[in-house]
Amino acid sequence: MVHRIGEICVNAICIYATSAPASCGSSWMARHRAGRIALHHKRKPSVNPHTGTKPGTRPKDEAPTLDRTTFGHRLRTARKRFGWTLAQLAERSGVSITTISRAERGQLALGYENFTALGRALEMDMNAMFAGAGVKPAQLDGPVVTRAGKGVVYRGLSIAYEFLGTTAAGKQMSPIVGTVHARSIHGPEDFVRHSGEEFAYVLSGEIEVHFDNGEVVRLARGDSLYFDSRIGHAYVSVSRQLAKIVGMTTAESGHMRSAREAPVSSPAGKVSPEPKSKSKPAVATRKTARGRAG
Q1: Does residue 245 contact residue 178 with C-beta atoms inside 8 Å?
Q2: 163: number of Cβ within 10 Å
Q3: pLDDT 10s digits, 14-69
């Protein structure tokens, strides 16, 4: 903007001089309206500098979102397929009747622990549960590509999950890109537990992973964490901006199950008593035990 003599422009506010030059007299002040404050209204930007889109429009590459209503309908359809009541599904999954009912009506977002428990009870593949609208997952028989921003987004209680590779059914791993929107731990109900193992890699921001044994692990950009997901855990964003992570969960493997169910070994220096053999005297058995202990 071109400013006339006597104007001072400060942050788009033009303040005209309150007094005219001595040589101009009152006619100059009347003509130039000395003392007036004028605001130059800036035009609204045509493009949002943060998203690169025009105001009021959605980005073309925005990830498809699975809304609560659609997710609830899928749960209800799966339950009706078995002919179960809410109480029967609650008993089989360990999720309360109220939670299931509200989720089916689209009134409640489920946390990871609850929707995996319901998926197991309903024999519902995770990919079928979170597939995009009109997409029917098929068995994995070749490479599966998920283009940038094309995963299916579901906003959970503490994390907004973008599920990847949802067109492949029966996968052993469930990969996600997650935006951690939880800012604090409110109570024991915030801790998630599920079978298998879990991996997290921080793409941006910083997070804390709280465990129900009191341990807290802080992770910054580029840090990663691998742990047994049967331990209660909760993610919290601690950076100014919400943190973004890449996550991976696996189902409990046969090796993990065997390790969990294996008997606890005896302390060093002690030998568990062996069952008595019907064909050998009891005395011989005791001698054998003493000999091994030595």
Answers
A1: yes
A2: 23
A3: 444 444 455 555 554 445 554 555 555 555 555 444 444 455 554 455 556 777 88
Q: What is the DSSP letter of 190?
A: G
Kindly state the helix (H) or strand (E) to which residue 260 belongs, with its residue range: helix 254-261
| CATH H-level, domain 172-260: superfamily | Jelly Rolls (2.60.120.10)
Residue environment code for 121-137, b if the CB has 16+ CB neighbours within 10 A, otherwise e: bbebbbbbbbbbeeeeb
Scanning the structure block, which residue is given the tokens 């940038």? 148
Angstrom distance (rounded) from CA 225 to CA 202 = 9
Q: 234-289 pLDDT, tens per residue?
A: 999 999 999 999 999 887 545 444 444 555 444 444 444 444 444 444 444 444 43
3-state SS, 17-28, equals CCCCCCCCCHHH
CA-based nearest residue to 154, from 185, 132, 121, 174: 132
Pairing of strands 243-250, 233-237: unpaired
Considering the entire predicted model, what is its pTM?
0.57
Residue in the structure block whose two tokens are 């609650």: 90
What is the length of the chain? 294
Tokens 């579901």 map to which residue?
A: 154
Cβ atoms of residues 128 and 137 within 8 Å: yes
> Domain spans of the chain?
7-39, 172-260
Q: Report which of 278, 113, 80, 86 is spatially closest to residue 193, judged by C-alpha positions.
A: 113
DSSP string computed for 20-67: --TTT-HHHHHHHTTT-EEE-PPPPPSS-TTTSS-TT---TTPPPB--
89 token code pair? 């599904």
According to DSSP, the residues that pair with 177 across neighbouring strands are 162, 246
Strands 138-139 and 168-169: parallel
Task: End-to-end CA distance of the chain: give it in Å, rounded.
Answer: 98
DSSP state of 132: P
